[in-house]
């Protein structure tokens, strides 16, 4: 017997992605008790051992009814919104979130199935944003600050999107945490980025810059920034948010500076490799193909193209024994070897 | 200057100015005697929370309450149902018990109180047995929340609808309303006139507590009807809030009062004029 | 009353029996009382196992708590709205009284320091009292 | 004399070997970082205590709270009416004052004390439907003098408070050194706890219905008690404590009981309002009541 008698079990106006696809799970959430035991527990022994709290099966149908009733009220409020109002879209999204926020099926998916959520639904974007703000956003900003990526590359960042990064060096499909030290073997091929928008997005254009601000500049006795990779006009949406090799092969104009792996020279220490993601207002104009990589002025570039950063990522690399192989792969000359300058010992 | 009058003593003037068409009304209420009715949702919620709390409770330290070797300890121990301890070679399909101080720490603890002597057979003869009120250890038998007055729907009784706030309504000049008394001049404050008026109306055996000297609302009447804008000859009625503490209201038919009733908010809605109810609705307790 | 005689070996070969105070097993009663008291306060061996709800039950629990929050919030809002109406009503009555009679107004707005609820106005109980309503009230003669 | 403040590095700190500028590293973003959430350790402790997965979780409402119901159904609207004063305005309490900058030493100097007192007084807001006083909770403080000689007495006091209140009890340690009393810092001296919400209401109804009516030495709370701003304190003797049902029905375990202090916390702005509220919850009062100082000041009395 299903506890749902109203809007949450009807999918005429609501998206079917708001319902759980697993039938056993769905039955468990829509019945007062657990008719076939706890589905989420894997082993038979733990299923047998499990005991729910007494009284939950009594109160749950009533609680469901209260929340479903509230949701119905909100849906009727959406119907009565003024469609010509300038804030219509915002109001609608807000109400749609409120209507579905407490739906147990939605809560289940948002809590335990984070990787397969339908991002076209405002409520899932809402939950994803909360999860992101609770950990990844803070972690990224802490790493950007401690590694001084801000203000060494761009002055600051107000993150709007989540940026995930991975390299296709092996079969393991693992996102890289900001600030990780990677070997040259990992970074030899261009990475895949996922840009997760928390607003409704149907065809926004994005620019990605990959820069190394730690290239030694002997003439100035300082460091300069090198542009390692430049991608522009990539069309992303809530359903398709990946920037990977496949997408770049299809649109060859996107890659205005081809990928060059970070090949650090020996004894130059750890290099920060910053990824900056910008949301564009229109097509990018001041980004000619084959832009000069060395002495890249990222602030100038951002100003010329009127870009605003929405997300970032950072990794670190170091010279290792594989670096020379990567250089050969890309036809680069052998790297310099820096040595410590001996300063004569001075008395006083 | 941010001065405001904190109870400034009013100047004693002996001259009383006569007032015309001013009345003071009384909202006399009987506060709930028993707790409000619990809805089904609330009751089940409390039940669930109680079960959760019992599951998360520490084990009852019986050794503190029952000294070893006493009769009380033996009786208590015999009344308990102890869980089966874990043993080697025995398979427990519901999981291996983890027993500490006689409690399986995976579940809530069930404490059974041993029955007091002399009450063991009370289940059979309780209906016929007369309760011995001097016996302090007698089993607790609560009185019903629904009283005789509820069954007969005696609206003159103060013992009806114990879980609700009751308000005193009188039929004054053919209109059901709160009782009101004329204010002849300004020699006496409003609440005193209200108290004295109630004494005259309801008899001496009335213990009434006036909540405040401040009137809680203003009703404007013209020709026996509630109006929004007061004409020249209209009547002002200031409502004073008070509670009945004890005693009985026995109506003396003065000031045009003919009948009285103790009513809840919903009953007032049915009894009174819609315009009147709309005005006083915010003053009435929903419970 | 006396403890068992214990064998004490003195220097030399001859054995003697000496009476000593009886040594009881366990602590003395005062120390035992403290130990018992500490065992009641302490969580040691009395803590239940940590609550591990399955995913479905966790979601159900969250749903229940949210529904409770929604119901409580509605109740609170209704109460606050009513209280606001009452406040406006008091304000209106006093504003009017101020114009009708300054003297009555001042008497009505006297600061009520020392105002007490009568003790007979008790917190409602779950079941009615055995004595019922107190009808036989007679006011004290002054 | 005109004093011109120049922005420059401090000379004295350079002489002292310290840098003359801020050592705090600037932050280049506006995202608030809660460091404890970034640590991978103890994931359960990062959950709020209201989350059922947290080890700190305790259900907050297990039965109908009749004191709370009584307050909301009866007392609240009565208190609104009792405390109402027409044309009321906020009364500004004396606050810390600014220096007049007649001397260069006034720069960065902590503010002056309020006139005629040492600590500032709060502003008393006009009473509206938004600030009707309510009962916030109760703190219990049990300081046992005999614990100096017999530390076990403090443990017994801890257990006594735990039994009465059904709450987690915290120990009290002596802070000062008083040789004539043989008191040393760090001695275990008693127990304290703080109750809010349903447990506080439960405790209050036990107190007003079972304990205080039978207490011989209790006349009521003195009208002069209170901290001026709505918190009323009073004491219970060791004899009265025996009347708590948890102790009364387990007499054998309690050869000694210990009296304690109770502080009733309310959201009232002044004590006389708190007394009115508490009388509605069944607490008796006695003695003379004075007009609060702040009101006398406001009226110029």
From TrEMBL, chain A:
One GO cellular component, as annotated: mitochondrion
Keyword Signal found: no
Record bears the keyword Mitochondrion: yes
Keywords, alphabetical: Mitochondrion
Pfam families: PBP (PF01161)
Highest taxon listed in the record's lineage: Eukaryota
CDD domains noted in UniProt: PEBP_euk
Localisation: Mitochondrion
Similarity-based family: Belongs to the phosphatidylethanolamine-binding protein family. Mitochondrion-specific ribosomal protein mL38 subfamily.
Function in brief: Component of the mitochondrial ribosome (mitoribosome), a dedicated translation machinery responsible for the synthesis of mitochondrial genome-encoded proteins, including at least some of the essential transmembrane subunits of the mitochondrial respiratory chain. The mitoribosomes are attached to the mitochondrial inner membrane and translation products are cotranslationally integrated into the membrane.
Protein name as annotated: Large ribosomal subunit protein mL38
Native organism: Pichia angusta
Lineage: Eukaryota, Fungi, Dikarya, Ascomycota, Saccharomycotina
UniProtKB/TrEMBL annotation, chain B:
Basic and acidic residues composition-biased segments: 147-156
A Gene Ontology cellular-component term: mitochondrial large ribosomal subunit
Subcellular location field: Mitochondrion
Source taxon at top rank: Eukaryota
Coiled coil spans: none
Family: Belongs to the mitochondrion-specific ribosomal protein mL46 family.
The name this protein goes by in its record: Large ribosomal subunit protein mL46
Automatic annotation (TrEMBL), chain C:
Transmembrane portions of the chain: none
InterPro entries linked to this entry: Ribosomal_mL40 (IPR019192), Ribosomal_mL40_fung (IPR042831)
The keyword Coiled coil is assigned to this record: yes
Localization annotation: Mitochondrion
Gene Ontology molecular functions: structural constituent of ribosome
Keywords of this entry: Coiled coil, Mitochondrion, Ribonucleoprotein, Ribosomal protein, Transit peptide
GO BP annotations, alphabetical order: mitochondrial translation
GO cellular component: mitochondrion; ribonucleoprotein complex; ribosome
Regions annotated as coiled coil: 73-110
Pfam family, one: MRP-L28
Similarity comment: family membership: Belongs to the mitochondrion-specific ribosomal protein mL40 family.
Protein's UniProt name: Large ribosomal subunit protein mL40
Species of the source: Pichia angusta (Yeast)
Automatic annotation (TrEMBL), chain D:
The keyword Transport is annotated on this UniProt entry: no
Domain of life: Eukaryota
Protein keywords: Ribonucleoprotein, Ribosomal protein
GO CC field: ribonucleoprotein complex; ribosome
GO molecular function, one term: structural constituent of ribosome
GO annotation terms (biological process): translation
Domain Large ribosomal subunit protein uL5 N-terminal: 131-184
Family membership noted in the UniProt record: Belongs to the universal ribosomal protein uL5 family.
Protein name stated in the entry: Uncharacterized protein
